[in-house]
Amino acid sequence: MSAASNSTSVAMRGPSRGSTMATTLIAAVLLLIAVAAPFVLYPVFLMKVLCFALFACAFNLLIGFAGLLSFGHAAFFGGAAYVTAHVVKEWGWAPEFGLLAATVVAAGLGLVFGLIAIRRQGIYFAMITLALSQMVFFLALQLPFTHGEDGIQGVPRGTLFGLFDLSQPLTMYYTVLAIFVAGFALIWRTVHSPFGQVLKAIRENEPRAVSLGYRTDRYKLVAFVLSASLAGLAGGTKALVFQLASLTDVTWQMSGEVVLMTLLGGMGTLFGPVVGAGLVVTLESYLASTSLPVPVVIGCIFVVCVLVFRRGIVGELLARLPRRGH
Amino acid sequence: MFSLLGVPPQVLFGQLLLGLINGSFYALLSLGLAVIFGMLNVINFAHGALYMVGAFVAWLLLTYAGVGYWGALVVAPVVVGLLGIVLEKTMLSRLYKLDHLYGLLLTFGLALILEGAFRHQYGVSGQPYPIPAALQGGQNLGFMFLPNYRAWVVVASLTVCFGTWFAIERTKLGAYLRAATENPTLVQAFGINVPVMVSLTYGFGVALAGLAGVLAAPIYQVSPLMGTNLIIIVFAVVVIGGMGSILGAIITGLGLGLLEGLTKVFYPEASNIVVFVVMAIVLLIKPAGLFGRER
């Protein structure tokens, strides 16, 4: 999204030494907090946050760093959840293979979506991904293996690598944390690689990137597939955590929710989607115990974010920090 | 009884009629989207929600004010249009200088609010809305039974669609509108109040959605979720037709409605996704859409 360029200077400061060290420090502190968290907070809630955080980070890789607004990421998230649930429950696969299957299927789906959607840009890209994901929703509603409205219930968590019993909440939590950290590290690496720089160039000015000789469609496609795979990994993990894969995760509302998490936290910032996911999940579990209608509240946050808070929380924080490095 | 391709004609024509009606709604809604997009460069995600609001205004008028169908046919689009103008003035107009995607995100939020609020108030179950007395009953055409109301819906929406096409392509006001789409600054320099024109365009576009809502009320039940899934299909219709042409939006809407009806006859399992499949195929062959120009 070229409008993200409002905050470009904020979003990514480039790999200057000072900011890299600061980010590493922040990451280390956050990791320590994450390791200690299950002793203070309810582990299932934390795992939900981590799954959505990975999902939002994967989504942010597209919108924040390649400028592509996908309104269909629920297809990868929810579709992959079905895959994990099915292979683990019906075929008795080990959880690690369940997650691998989820990632591979999401990557394949991402490749198909990407090949179709990158033929158009901007608003059309959003509408096409939305329409394609709605197709996945109808497939999930009708195909026999997804069990329609019931979803796939009672998915066994199993034993990871034959060693770790995932039915233990803490073991499951640290597994999810490890998956999240691995996914986040991959995104970090991607963003700071030459490949990531080209993506940013495409986001800022695609015709120019083309004129410099980059095949922008290929870069966009690779970014799309990578984002879809990570969203799939997040979805598969969520299916293991909640032992359930359901239609909720493939709806367009879910696609909208991940947009909100990223927007609220800060598009194009590395930590923004994590913060956004934490806030939205917390808010939803709070609202569930009140009589307030959740979509109305979510919709209001959306409107406020778009109108007055486009940088998001982390984006605003970064904008207020004194400049360092360069 | 004779049959066509192994399908009894009642079934075939019944589904085709249903397809034609769905197609009329697709046409009305994608027309509104195309008009709005042409002028504002905003994809109005709230279009489905405003269609639902139109239907609810008709239902509320009947239930609480005793205003019948014909009154609602006038009042509901006006109410929805005014609501649209307020939304445009207070929110959308702040986003024109930014990336167009923010308009999509804003209207997405608005759609969530509208649908959530109605759902909170009236629940998910539909409210029945009676067919007006003058349009009850139907005609026996020999090969099928044609309910009067459904014939009316098709005729009414086609009239509105082509009226809009005529107004935009053949009148002076339409010429201003098209000129402002091409170059708003220049048109403003000629002394035409472009911001007001933009508000009115948005109001008109969503009023079309409101009108579609009233037309739909007696056919489908009036429910908070009636616009949700429809709008995504209409997006696909818009992508297939391309947004450059008003006539293209109308033809694509009707055509896809009919195609959906045919799919229901011959391969019902695929009827929900056929529009999306067509969209994918069109994108692979002609990325700008059937009637579109790449801009």
UniProtKB/TrEMBL annotation, chain A:
Keywords: Cell membrane, Membrane, Transmembrane, Transmembrane helix. It is found in: Cell membrane. It is a multi-pass membrane protein. It holds the Pfam family BPD_transp_2. Signal peptide: none annotated. Its main location: membrane. The chain crosses the membrane at residues 20-42, 49-77, 97-116, 123-141, 172-191, 221-246, 258-280, 292-313. The keyword Transmembrane applies. The keyword Protease does not apply. It comes from the Bacteria. InterPro entries: ABC_transp_permease, LivM-like. PANTHER family: ABC TRANSPORTER ATP-BINDING PROTEIN, HIGH-AFFINITY BRANCHED-CHAIN AMINO ACID TRANSPORT SYSTEM PERMEASE. This is Branched-chain amino acid ABC transporter permease.
From TrEMBL, chain B:
InterPro entries: ABC_transp_permease, BCAA_transport_permease. Coiled coil: none annotated. It is found in: Cell membrane. Keywords: Amino-acid transport, Cell membrane, Membrane, Transmembrane, Transmembrane helix, Transport. Its main location: membrane. Belongs to the binding-protein-dependent transport system permease family. LivHM subfamily. This is Branched-chain amino acid ABC transporter permease.
